[in-house]
Design a protein that fits this description.
It contains five helices and 34 strands. The chain has two domains: 331 residues, Immunoglobulin-like; 133 residues, Immunoglobulin-like. The radius of gyration is 21 Å and the shape is globular. By secondary structure, it is mainly beta. Bound molecules: copper (II) ion. The site of copper (II) ion has 6 residues, from loops. This is Cell division protein SufI. Keywords: Cell cycle, Cell division, Metal-binding, Oxidoreductase.
Length: 490
């Protein structure tokens, strides 16, 4: 049996050492690992930050090192914080033996700064974009987006959280002590064999996306978060390759949903569960003042292109339990010693000007195809994974959009649920399946799940002329195998 007592023996200790105010020695909890808090890389003082893309080893289980990738560390990366209004000078150095890119997922910046497949960073090279931060406070993420290797590089660890802050957000009195009552939570599923990370492959992976039977938060298995017994802000980031989580608390407590990919909602929404697809983020306020422990749990993974579910078909790694319900993160509230003056949830969070549907000048339709070719589509030449029947071609611009215009994109997906992500924009969900959007569709978005057609109202305010923007399925194996297109904005 694996000894899960402590993560500290392994290479992931670099995160734990950065957990500053959290005492790791105070965490008992019978086999749990203290939730690692990624180091905070605050770009505000110098309006700059640097990332080293590197390989290393990480012991998810003590004494069982796995080969992994990370930014400024062996697995995942620091939490980068930038401020609205700043121009942030970035240096990303690639210490890998392979090409990589760093995509600023959700940042509204011109195409040549986006970090997509066109901004390759060769081994040994340094990429130096300057990022103009001009959008409201939000929880974003950054990750590899080198075409054909995105899924493998993200699975190996190339992802991190990117926070945008501004005066309006800071004036709300939301929980804001990083790592204490304001927690970034990167949720991932991974497959282990004998305690070592393995990368499932084969036809099922190409078809369904790479999934695993173990849930990690911030790189820790079986994590436990000690939180103050007050209102706590959770910044959920689905950094998984393919799994859609249906998240709730083990004691069915309700919580407030306050933010989407694009930033804060206009009003907090009381919920008991929330769905989070790969690439999506959700900010929650959870009240721990009663001091009672609770677990964030996920329902079974039902997103499958196969009749009868994944378990019938076996899996690349020979496991059939990756779709099971799982505990994601346990919380243990502790007396915080300081009574928080304003523990209340603000009624109004943000005001925003929504795009006007009557201003839409054009309608486009995207169908995320799997076809029967998807059955054979294990990589190149299978042909089933496309958008509108066309597999991704980096030399083809699929759509040309006028800068400053508003459009309606109708997007649907075949055979299973697909998270569509569009670079360089935020959008609103106008309709879903021909009717009203779901409660969970509201707010400014950059990634939404489609199967039934959804109508997205999009304003294109960022130029993409010298390099195009991408739109793609955020099941990374679908994206790598062709379910991606590109558009210019000029
Ligand atoms: Cu897909």
């Amino acid at each position: 049996m694996l000894d899960r007592r402590s993560l500290l023996a392994g290479g992931a200790a670099l995160f734990a050492t950065a957990a500053c105010s959290r005492s790791t020695s105070s965490l008992g909890g019978g086999g749990a690992n203290p939730l690692p808090i990624p180091p905070l890389l605050d770009a505000q003082p110098g309006r700059s930050f640097a990332l080293q893309v590197q390989s290393g080893t990480t012991s998810f289980y003590p004494g069982r090192p796995s080969d992994t990738l990370g930014y400024n560390g062996s697995y995942l990366g620091p939490t980068i914080r930038v401020r609205r209004g700043d121009d942030v000078a970035v240096a990303v150095t690639n210490r890998l033996k392979a090409d990589t890119t760093v995509h600023w997922h959700g940042l509204l910046i011109p195409g040549e700064l986006d970090g997509g497949p066109h901004q390759i960073i060769a081994p040994g090279a340094t990429w130096r974009p300057t990022l103009p931060i001009r959008q409201p406070a939000a929880t974003l993420l950054y990750h590899s987006h080198v075409h054909g290797l995105t899924a493998e590089q993200v699975y190996s660890g190339l992802a991190g959280a990117l926070l945008v802050t501004d005066d309006e957000e800071q004036g709300l009195g939301l929980p804001s002590e990083y790592g204490v009552d304001d927690l970034p939570l990167l949720i991932q599923d991974r497959q282990f064999e004998n305690g070592r990370l393995v990368m499932p492959g084969g036809m099922m992976v190409a078809m369904q996306g790479r999934r695993g039977d173990t849930t990690l938060v911030n790189g820790a298995v079986n994590p436990l978060a000690a939180v103050p017994n007050r209102l706590v802000r959770l910044r959920l980031v689905n950094a998984s390759n393919a799994r859609i989580y249906e998240l709730s608390f083990s004691d069915q407590r309700s919580f407030y949903w306050i933010g989407t990919e694009g930033g804060l909602l206009e009003r907090a929404v009381a919920l008991e569960s929330i769905t989070l697809a790969p690439g999506q983020r959700g900010e929650l306020l959870v009240d721990f003042t009663d001091g009672r422990p609770a677990s964030l749990v996920t329902a079974a993974d039902t997103n499958s292109a196969m009749m009868g579910g994944m378990g019938m078909m076996g899996r690349g790694a020979g496991r059939t339990d990756a779709a099971a319900p799982a505990t994601v993160l346990r919380f243990e509230p502790r007396p915080s010693g300081q009574a928080r003056a304003s523990g209340a949830v603000p009624t109004l969070l943000a005001s925003r000007t929504r795009p006007d549907a009557s201003k839409a000048v054009r309608r486009r339709r995207l169908i995320l195809n799997m076809g029967m070719g998807g059955m054979m589509g294990s990589g190149n030449g299978g042909g089933g994974l496309t958008i509108n029947g066309k597999p991704f071609d980096i030399n083809r611009i699929d759509e040309t959009v006028k800068l400053g215009s508003t459009e309606i994109w109708e997007v649907s997906g075949e055979m299973m649920r697909h998270p569509i992500h569009i670079h360089g924009v935020h959008f609103d969900v106008l309709t879903r399946g021909g009717g009203q959007p779901d409660v969970l569709d509201q707010g400014p978005r950059d990634t939404v799940v489609v199967k039934e057609p959804v109508e997205l109202l999009i304003r294109f305010d960022q130029p993409a002329k010298s390099a195009p923007f991408m739109y793609h399925c955020h099941i990374l194996e679908h994206e790598d195998n062709g379910m991606m297109g590109q558009f210019s904005v000029a």
